[in-house]
Amino acid sequence: MTRTEEEPARPTEPLEPLNPRAVGTSPVRLDGPAKVTGTAPYAWEHALRDPVYVHPLQSAIARGRVLRMETGRAEAAEGVAAVLTPRNAPRLADSSDRALAVLQSDDVAFRGQFIGAVLAASPEAARHAASLVDVEYEVEPHDTRLSSDRPDLYRPEAINPADEADTEEGDVEAALAAAHAVVDETYSTPMEHNNPMEPHTCVAVWHGASDDGEPALTVYDSTQWPYGVRMTLAPLFALAPERVRVISPHVGGGFGSKGLPHAHHVLAVLAARTVPGRPAKLALTRQQMFCLTGHRTPTIQRVRLGADSGGRLTALSHEAVEQTATIKEFAEQTAAQSRMMYASPNRRTSHRLAALDVPVPSWMRAPGEAPGAFAAEVAMDELAHALGLDPVELRVRNDPETDPRDGRPWSDRRLVECLRTGARRFGWDARTEAGARREGDWLVGLGVAASTYPGFGGPGSVAEIERTSDGGHAVRIAAADLGTGTWTVLTQIAADALECPFDAVHLEIGDTALPTATVAGGSAGVTAWGSTIVAAAREFRAQHGEDPAPGARTRSGMPENPDLRRYSVASFGAQFAEARVHADTGEVRVPRMLGVFSAGRIINPRTARSQFIGGMIMGMSMALFEESVLDHGTGHVVNHDFAQYHIPTSADVLDIEATWLDGPDPHAGPLGSKGIGEIGIVGSPAAVVNAVYNATGIRVRDLPVTPDKLLRY
Amino acid sequence: MDSQLTLHVDGEPRSLTVDNRTTLLDALRDRLGVTSPKKGCDHGQCGSCTVLLGGRRVVSCLTFAVAHDGAEVTTAEGLAEADGRLHPLQQAFLDHDGFQCGYCTPGQICSAAGMLAEAEAGHPSSATADGDGPGGVPRPVPLDEEEIRERMSGNLCRCGAYGNIVDAIRAVAGR
Amino acid sequence: MKPFDYSRADDAGSAVAAVMARPDAAFLAGGTNLVDHMKLGVAAPELLVDVTGLPLDRVEELPDGGLRIGATVRNSDLAAHPLVRRRLPVLSQALLAGASGQLRNAATTAGNLLQRTRCGYFQDVTTPCNKREPGSGCAAIGGWNRYHAVLGASEHCVAVHPSDMAVALRVLDAVVTVLGEDGERRVPVGEFHRLPGEAPEADTVLRHGELVTAVEVPPLPAGTRSGYRKVRDRASYAFALVSVAAAVETDGDRVREARIAFGGLAHKPWRAERAEEALRGASATDEAFREAAEAELRAARPLPGNGFKIPMARNTLAALLRELTTEERR
């Protein structure tokens, strides 16, 4: 059942801080027993009767038009229910978003784009029939090659999420000319793919004639944002939002790629409309994920740093070149963190895009910050080397007292403490000159980098509290758990907010039948949803007292936090890495990493540690392994599977530890918590690359650092 | 082209008719509703679909169901007791937070169960020194962290839970 | 995937007859490569003859101390076999360097030998590939060729053979026994795999319907030390950039005899005869090892994306030989 209720009021006064009791402890994951037995239902796994299986047809060209599709053999194949093409697919009510205007025209804008689908009684039949469709194209020359000297680079109107593309303060050129030491280098990062373990899956059921005669849609999905899927799909299919229900209780990872709906959502619903009443099941293959679920743009970043003889930055310039698609713009905020990380009187940042015949880039864990910090934090290492200064000390000397962007005070910036704590715990003193330490066949080095992630988290969520007949409390909010611990940590927060036992909270998430929730993205989910639950719990107590009757119920929106206007809120961290590089083969091992973070109150140390470490590992992976190889001849990612697109195995992950500075951020809302989901990947690639330099004396400026780049000929 | 067969899944005989093209993984998930093994890549490159087939760990995506008439298949669901009590590995994964999103987890746990049996039977890994036991009789391989990491390298985890997974397995291997 | 018939073979002869009789038939054993290819559309047999029930799953000791390894012995069982571990460390190490525990439990000896290249274009039916579709062209030559061949390639194909085990068998001078309609024939492993030449679609000299029944491995001379070293982009569960198998006899600080094969460099396991020649009688020094490698690699013709393989192969060979000639016997 889909509930429609008017938007409840939001508290306008800041809420009193939460009194933590369950918060700050480490209960095991509530979804854990179901996950270790494999019985937690992911999108594909809801028991539904009489499904049809959808296998997409994809463009084999990167630009042009579909002239003709010969579908007769496929339609005649055993078990086939229908073959959708641009000619016969249902029309969408709104095709203005070209990335979602699936099968609405013959145009092909990137290789692998959906040009049809086969619906069949079994997955085998659907896939086989898809191979029987012959397609004739009008081929146009395509262009997928990003470079920094393309004449068609342009400045976007804004960068993700909603920031200015360029900034300029002071006179960078003059400051560089006058600097005691200068770094001027270009860094590049490749196209990368999120690759959550659960492939993107959408099971759609079109209820053509539901009880009231109006059509309705149920979607079993794997999404970081159930309400986002509803809000996106409803207008495309001319449905009122409340006619769309999205169910997504468990999400097998997302890392940003399940943050926004993609074309496969639309294709699944188009298929469902073709077979009303029957579930249309669509799970992308691993290979298809490389062209249909977003990607991290490749970047080319020129970083120029100038410093005086005391190691203080006098100039900081960070200019980024990225790609976007022809059909839709995504402008990643690659250089944005260089606007606030270090003090410098002269500063420039810029973003330039090339619109190429590629799929639309999208969010991948710490979009902008992760590749941007690679360039900026390696450049800082190079500057430290040029100055003969310890890299930790260089960062300490350039720690800004207030936010360089606007002079606001920091709510809680403890980067220097992170650096000092980490250096002590990691044994930073043992660091030698570059290339000076060898143990057997292995060259050994240490590296450091700083991390930051913004304190996102806007209004929009609503939570409902209801007394249940067992004396407990139902807590309802359409949040998502993609491995983030949401099931567990929101239960902890609700228990403290209601001042009731942990076991007395019955959390319900992952369903648009529940009150609305913002996206599990921007490392903002738990803080936004959690403070909304705190507001609802306080309102519930105010309305119903300490021992209300079963059925007593209250809804509340996310509270205002005026401190977010007065203070600059962000998470910070320092990351340390040891790299060992084989002197003969160039193989790299990372035996140790340590991250020390300042991220406000940690709700659940057990799950938080896992999330920090997971981010650090993904950063190490970005440093050493990940690269989607775009073949400019065909326009597709050649290495589109897990055998060729490498992520770490257990054998690659040695001693990786994360710790944090205690204490709530006093300005970050009633929980005092900040984002932890993404900061782990920010800085860790640079820490690894800086450690590799310290081990070998070889400075790699283009990721990933594969063995061939470290061979000594 | 279809075939009839019986699979003994988690202790239950299950007779079914499958298209010969149906993999063991799809037979379990789509025909029998046993969705504990997960489909992460469908090409033997991630390990999410690992089950114990006749007691040995294999990826169920790269084998056809039709080739396994009469076989014993154990999934992570079947490792738990019928009354819901968890297998020691499952409890250890909970205690050590050996997962985040949980999608690779049933495969990790089946793989760990199979791996412990292999090590007990004296099967070496790349991390094992050459040589064998006295008289050429294989002896159990002690499982330090390096052994576990190498032996579990066929199970990818994108959330990066590896350290906790190794801790969980060590806790069980040490018993 | 095309619909197909499935049958289980009761004896090797009838299995061969069944596959010989139909051009669209194929043997099925571990399936780890064939099932993969059927899903991708790279292979489309309409009859699978399952040979896992045949009595080919034994490792037997031969009178001369060598081993006869049945075609369906699983890779994990072979790697763990006490005689293999004791007498043929290079083989055990190579097997354990390949794939993952799960895959080794399924993959067989013959299947490992017969596995096909992991070239990304070969595995993607939407791109041209002369190996998959003769005459369609080679997308790798002008495309992504980081993993591709630097030795023995042709203008038609630059793929590499992915097996680790086969590289070890090459230094061991193994012999493949093959059953055809005219009975058994024996093919030295060095002649079993082909270079691509004009016909890259054929990986091996096997004729349609011939069944690999066993691999025979002669014993290594007493005092020989053997080992396998694989360099890859991550620490485990990845195909080789470069690998080296070697078996070395030393006489004091000189090399008496060395047998060397490279993986990851060519369309077949690459026996480095020039390097072996250079090492015969040479002093066991890093310099001599590198010179020997260079003698072999002089013939290398890198592609734009894989020139690094030449120094990597040289260094890896030197590192392995250093280990085999200096380390205390374990």
TrEMBL record, chain A:
<dbReference type="InterPro" id="IPR046867">
    <property type="entry name" value="AldOxase/xan_DH_MoCoBD2"/>
</dbReference>
<dbReference type="Pfam" id="PF20256">
    <property type="entry name" value="MoCoBD_2"/>
</dbReference>
<dbReference type="Pfam" id="PF01315">
    <property type="entry name" value="Ald_Xan_dh_C"/>
</dbReference>
<keyword id="KW-0560">Oxidoreductase</keyword>
<feature type="domain" description="Aldehyde oxidase/xanthine dehydrogenase a/b hammerhead">
    <location>
        <begin position="37"/>
        <end position="141"/>
    </location>
</feature>
<feature type="compositionally biased region" description="Basic and acidic residues">
    <location>
        <begin position="1"/>
        <end position="10"/>
    </location>
</feature>
<dbReference type="InterPro" id="IPR016208">
    <property type="entry name" value="Ald_Oxase/xanthine_DH-like"/>
</dbReference>
<dbReference type="Pfam" id="PF02738">
    <property type="entry name" value="MoCoBD_1"/>
</dbReference>
<dbReference type="InterPro" id="IPR037165">
    <property type="entry name" value="AldOxase/xan_DH_Mopterin-bd_sf"/>
</dbReference>
<protein>
    <submittedName>
        <fullName>Xanthine dehydrogenase</fullName>
    </submittedName>
</protein>
<feature type="region of interest" description="Disordered">
    <location>
        <begin position="1"/>
        <end position="34"/>
    </location>
</feature>
<dbReference type="InterPro" id="IPR036856">
    <property type="entry name" value="Ald_Oxase/Xan_DH_a/b_sf"/>
</dbReference>
<dbReference type="InterPro" id="IPR000674">
    <property type="entry name" value="Ald_Oxase/Xan_DH_a/b"/>
</dbReference>
<keyword id="KW-0500">Molybdenum</keyword>
<dbReference type="InterPro" id="IPR008274">
    <property type="entry name" value="AldOxase/xan_DH_MoCoBD1"/>
</dbReference>
Automatic annotation (TrEMBL), chain B:
<keyword id="KW-0479">Metal-binding</keyword>
<keyword id="KW-0408">Iron</keyword>
<feature type="region of interest" description="Disordered">
    <location>
        <begin position="121"/>
        <end position="142"/>
    </location>
</feature>
<dbReference type="InterPro" id="IPR036884">
    <property type="entry name" value="2Fe-2S-bd_dom_sf"/>
</dbReference>
<dbReference type="Pfam" id="PF00111">
    <property type="entry name" value="Fer2"/>
</dbReference>
<dbReference type="InterPro" id="IPR002888">
    <property type="entry name" value="2Fe-2S-bd"/>
</dbReference>
<dbReference type="InterPro" id="IPR012675">
    <property type="entry name" value="Beta-grasp_dom_sf"/>
</dbReference>
<feature type="domain" description="2Fe-2S ferredoxin-type">
    <location>
        <begin position="3"/>
        <end position="79"/>
    </location>
</feature>
<dbReference type="InterPro" id="IPR006058">
    <property type="entry name" value="2Fe2S_fd_BS"/>
</dbReference>
<dbReference type="Pfam" id="PF01799">
    <property type="entry name" value="Fer2_2"/>
</dbReference>
<keyword id="KW-0560">Oxidoreductase</keyword>
<protein>
    <submittedName>
        <fullName>Oxidoreductase</fullName>
    </submittedName>
</protein>
<dbReference type="InterPro" id="IPR036010">
    <property type="entry name" value="2Fe-2S_ferredoxin-like_sf"/>
</dbReference>
<dbReference type="InterPro" id="IPR052914">
    <property type="entry name" value="Aldehyde_Oxdr_Iron-Sulfur"/>
</dbReference>
<dbReference type="InterPro" id="IPR001041">
    <property type="entry name" value="2Fe-2S_ferredoxin-type"/>
</dbReference>
UniProtKB/TrEMBL annotation, chain C:
<dbReference type="Pfam" id="PF03450">
    <property type="entry name" value="CO_deh_flav_C"/>
</dbReference>
<dbReference type="Pfam" id="PF00941">
    <property type="entry name" value="FAD_binding_5"/>
</dbReference>
<protein>
    <submittedName>
        <fullName>FAD-binding molybdopterin dehydrogenase</fullName>
    </submittedName>
</protein>
<dbReference type="InterPro" id="IPR016166">
    <property type="entry name" value="FAD-bd_PCMH"/>
</dbReference>
<dbReference type="InterPro" id="IPR016169">
    <property type="entry name" value="FAD-bd_PCMH_sub2"/>
</dbReference>
<dbReference type="InterPro" id="IPR016167">
    <property type="entry name" value="FAD-bd_PCMH_sub1"/>
</dbReference>
<feature type="domain" description="FAD-binding PCMH-type">
    <location>
        <begin position="1"/>
        <end position="222"/>
    </location>
</feature>
<dbReference type="InterPro" id="IPR036683">
    <property type="entry name" value="CO_DH_flav_C_dom_sf"/>
</dbReference>
<dbReference type="InterPro" id="IPR036318">
    <property type="entry name" value="FAD-bd_PCMH-like_sf"/>
</dbReference>
<dbReference type="InterPro" id="IPR005107">
    <property type="entry name" value="CO_DH_flav_C"/>
</dbReference>
<dbReference type="InterPro" id="IPR051312">
    <property type="entry name" value="Diverse_Substr_Oxidored"/>
</dbReference>
<keyword id="KW-0560">Oxidoreductase</keyword>
<dbReference type="InterPro" id="IPR002346">
    <property type="entry name" value="Mopterin_DH_FAD-bd"/>
</dbReference>
